C-alpha cells in the first residue's frame, strides 16, 4: 500500500498525514477524516489528497484498505522509531526501488571519481560511504566541510554524492550548486525528493522518514535508511566492477 513511488508523490503536508498514520496505526482505524486532519494538523482536503495518491477514491476506501494492509502484515513493535523504519524497508523492498539503485550504480560506474559530501551527521555518513565504496573497489573521497573550495580539477569527470536529511540546508545547497557549476554530476540522498537539494540533483534517491529534532535544533533523525542505501549501492557496485 505504502509503496516507494506512492510516498514519493506526497508533498510536505501529505507527508505529515503519512507519518501520523504509521505512528498511530491502531488509532487511525477509528478516526473520522476530521479527527485525522486535526491530529496531523492539516486540512481535510490534504487528507483526501493523501488518500487519492495512495490510489483510494476517498477516506472510507483508505480505511478499508489500510485495515487489510495491517491484517496482512506483521504487527509493529512499540519500540521508538521501529514503525517508521519497518515502513521504510517495506517501501523499498520491490523491483521499482531496485531499478532506481541500478540507475544510480550506472551513474557511479560512468564517473572517474566519487566525492561524498555531507555536514554534521551526514558528514560522518559521507566518510562511511567513501570508505565502503573504496572497500568494494571504487576509490572515493569525502568532504564534510561545506566551505571546501570546489575547483574544475576536482570536479572533472567526477560524481558528487551529497547526503542531507532535509535537503534544505543552505550551506549544502550552495556547495552542491558549486559542483553543478563546475559540470560535476550530482547524486543526492535525501529524506524527500521534493526538497530543493533533490531538485537540484541530476539523480536523487529518497528515503521517507520524518525528521526529528531536540529543542528544534539538534537533529536525531534515524540514519538507518541512509546506511542501507549506501550499502545497497556499494554491493551492487561490487558486482559490476571488473
Could you characterize the architecture of this molecule?
With 242 residues, this protein is α/β, with parallel strands linked by helices. It has helices at residues 4-8, 12-23, 25-28, 33-40, 44-53, 59-72, 82-92, 95-109, 121-136, 152-155, 170-181, 196-200, 224-240; strands at 113-117, 140-143, 158-164, 185-190, 203-206, 213-214, 218-219. Helices cover 55% and strands 12% of the residues. Strands 2-1-3-4-5 form a five-stranded parallel beta sheet, sandwiched between helices. Strands 6-7 form a two-stranded antiparallel ribbon. Residues 75-80 have low confidence and may be disordered.
Fill in the keyword field for this structure.
242 residues, alpha/beta, 5-stranded parallel sheet, two-stranded antiparallel sheet, 7 strands
Amino acid at each position: 500500500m505504502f509503496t516507494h513511488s506512492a510516498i514519493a508523490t506526497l508533498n510536505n503536508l501529505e507527508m505529515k498525514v503519512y507519518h501520523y498514520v504509521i505512528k498511530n496505526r491502531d488509532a487511525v482505524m477509528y478516526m473520522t477524516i476530521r479527527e485525522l486532519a486535526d491530529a496531523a494538523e492539516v486540512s481535510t482536503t490534504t487528507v483526501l489528497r493523501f488518500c487519492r495518491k495512495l490510489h483510494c477514491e476517498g477516506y472510507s476506501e483508505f480505511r478499508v484498505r489500510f485495515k487489510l494492509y495491517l491484517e496482512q502484515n506483521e504487527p509493529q513493535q512499540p519500540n521508538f522509531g521501529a514503525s517508521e523504519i519497518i515502513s521504510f524497508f517495506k517501501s523499498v523492498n520491490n523491483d521499482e526501488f531496485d531499478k532506481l539503485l541500478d540507475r544510480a550504480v550506472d551513474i557511479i560506474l560512468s564517473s572517474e571519481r566519487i566525492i561524498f559530501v555531507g555536514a554534521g551527521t551526514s558528514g560522518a555518513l559521507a566518510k562511511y560511504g567513501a570508505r565502503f565504496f573504496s572497500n568494494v573497489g571504487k576509490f572515493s573521497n569525502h568532504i564534510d566541510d561545506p566551505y571546501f573550495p570546489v575547483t574544475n580539477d576536482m570536479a572533472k569527470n567526477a560524481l558528487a554524492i551529497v547526503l542531507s536529511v532535509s535537503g534544505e540546508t543552505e550551506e549544502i545547497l550552495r556547495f552542491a550548486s558549486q559542483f553543478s557549476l563546475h559540470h560535476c554530476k550530482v547524486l543526492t540522498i535525501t529524506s524527500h525528493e521534493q526538497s530543493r537539494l533533490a531538485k537540484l540533483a541530476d539523480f536523487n534517491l529518497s528515503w521517507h522518514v520524518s525528521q526529528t529534532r531536540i529543542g528544534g535544533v539538534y537533529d536525531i533523525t534515524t540514519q538507518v535508511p541512509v546506511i542501507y542505501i549506501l550499502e545497497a549501492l556499494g554491493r551492487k557496485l561490487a558486482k559490476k566492477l571488473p
